[in-house]
């Protein structure tokens, strides 16, 4: 029980703020590095192959989101149960949950990948491709669909390593992947003069190396993480899928966001609008990962405290995380106002029309970050504490229901500004609804007492 001598006292006895920071920093760095895996593709492709190729891989990017969504769905669902078992000091059950989750992830990912691969051309059209962007989108998509299971395995394994008290190794894995992806993008696109296929291969190979780094965790003597005898439990599978479902919806929502904005921009601003959105979308992927990292930082803690029945530490952790997310959101919004032009220039030299659209879009879109971090933190809290309905409401509303409604209505009133403002308004409405819901829960508890 060396695990109890190392991990458990730190989570149960160290100051809550100190524990939160210990998980927050590696989570933020890790998520930032993960976003660089995508953004590096955009930077290299935009500079080397031009705006059409950049638009093509932006159209294909939901494929990456789907694999990421699969890993979060099963990974967070399994990791939540894993940490709850750890908190309850049921180590054998934790190991069974880990093994069961990896089997589910691999099998379901392969089923989705094979189906999407067979339908990749109509899928590219459905995602917004046209005659100009289709070749680039299909080429990039083909590589991701062939080797995308590597992405799901690395991300899910990283979640379990972090939940086993080793967030720093998860961070190192992401750093290695990001650095290697940049190096390989340069080699494949500039030295070997490859097309967008080279950028996709760089992402896959870098992710594979990052996954191998995570196996260092098995050298730790104080680890709980270990493979048990393979088995399948329908009850455990359902519970894993239920808990992780909000994360899956969140990532699916990202795909809906990309498709919705691409379609709206084609209608209201043409090809220039799609190119401008592709620039914003890469910047958004970085910011999104940072806020997702804040939510991810509390998941192991809330799950563990729930298993250990440490309610007060749960509440303190959430309060610290919400304050951190809100202050960070304001800082990011101010950054967007001050540096919109520099952000656009980072992705290449564009026509004045594309550049003007992108700069305006960044300044308007970044308003949403003041609310997005808080929404992610609260979604993760509800999810990790198995209040799944509330978590599903947050994820469905912010990037699917409300966003689609605003995309259909606002452009008729505000033109392209209405497109850019659809997500900020969605995030704001969801944040207000969370505040009202929490106040209702608190009043209900006081009445019950």
From TrEMBL:
InterPro entries: MATE_fam, MATE_MepA-like, MATE_MepA_subfamily, MdtK-like
Biological process per Gene Ontology, one example term: response to antibiotic
One Pfam family of this chain: MatE
Membrane-spanning parts: 20-40, 52-76, 97-120, 140-160, 172-192, 198-219, 240-262, 282-305, 317-337, 357-378, 390-413, 419-438
Its membrane topology: Multi-pass membrane protein
GO molecular function: antiporter activity; xenobiotic transmembrane transporter activity
Matches recorded under CDD domains: MATE_MepA_like (cd13143)
Family label: Belongs to the multi antimicrobial extrusion (MATE) (TC 2.A.66.1) family. MepA subfamily.
Protein name per Swiss-Prot or TrEMBL: Multidrug export protein MepA
Organism: Paenibacillus albilobatus
Organism taxonomic ancestry: Bacteria, Bacillati, Bacillota, Bacilli, Bacillales
């Amino acid at each position: 029980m060396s695990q109890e001598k190392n991990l458990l006292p730190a989570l149960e006895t160290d100051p809550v703020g100190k524990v939160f920071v210990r998980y927050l920093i590696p989570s933020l760095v890790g998520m930032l590095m993960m976003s660089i895996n995508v953004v590096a593709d955009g930077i290299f492709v935009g500079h080397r192959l031009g705006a059409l190729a950049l638009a093509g891989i932006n159209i294909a990017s939901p494929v990456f989101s789907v694999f990421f969504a699969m890993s979060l769905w099963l990974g967070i669902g399994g990791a939540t149960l894993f940490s709850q078992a750890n908190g309850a000091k049921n180590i054998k059950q934790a190991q069974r949950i880990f093994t069961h989750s990896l089997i589910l992830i691999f099998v379901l990912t392969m089923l989705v990948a094979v189906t999407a691969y067979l339908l990749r051309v109509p899928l590219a059209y459905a995602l917004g491709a046209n005659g100009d962007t289709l070749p680039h989108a299909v080429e990039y998509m083909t590589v991701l669909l062939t080797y995308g299971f590597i992405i799901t395995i690395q991300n899910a394994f990283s979640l379990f390593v972090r939940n086993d008290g080793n967030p720093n190794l998860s961070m190192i894995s992401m750093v290695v992947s990001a650095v290697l992806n940049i190096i390989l993008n340069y080699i494949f696109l500039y030295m070997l003069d490859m097309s967008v296929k080279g950028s996709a291969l760089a992402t896959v190979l870098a992710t594979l190396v990052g996954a191998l780094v995570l196996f260092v965790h098995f050298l730790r003597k104080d680890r709980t993480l270990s493979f048990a005898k393979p088995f399948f439990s329908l009850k455990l599978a359902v519970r894993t899928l239920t808990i992780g479902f909000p994360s899956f919806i969140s990532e699916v929502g990202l795909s809906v966001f990309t498709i919705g904005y691409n379609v709206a921009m084609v209608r209201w601003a043409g090809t220039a609008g799609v190119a401008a959105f592709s620039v914003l979308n890469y910047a958004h992927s970085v910011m999104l990962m940072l806020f997702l990292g804040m939510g991810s930082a509390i998941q192991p803690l809330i799950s563990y405290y729930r298993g250990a029945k440490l309610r007060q530490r749960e509440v303190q952790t959430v309060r610290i995380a919400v304050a951190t997310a809100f202050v960070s959101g304001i800082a990011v919004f101010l950054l967007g106002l001050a540096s919109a032009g520099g952000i656009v220039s980072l992705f290449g030299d564009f026509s004045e029309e594309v550049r003007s659209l992108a700069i305006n879009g960044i300044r308007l879109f970044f308003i949403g970050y003041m609310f997005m971090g808080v929404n992610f933190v609260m979604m993760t809290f509800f999810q990790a504490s198995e209040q799944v309905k509330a978590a599903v409401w947050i994820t469905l509303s912010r990037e699917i229901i409300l966003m689609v409604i605003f995309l259909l209505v606002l452009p008729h009133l505000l033109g392209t500004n209405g497109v850019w403002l659809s997500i900020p308004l969605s995030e704001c409405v969801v944040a207000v609804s969370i505040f009202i819901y929490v106040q209702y829960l608190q009043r209900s508890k006081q009445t019950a007492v």
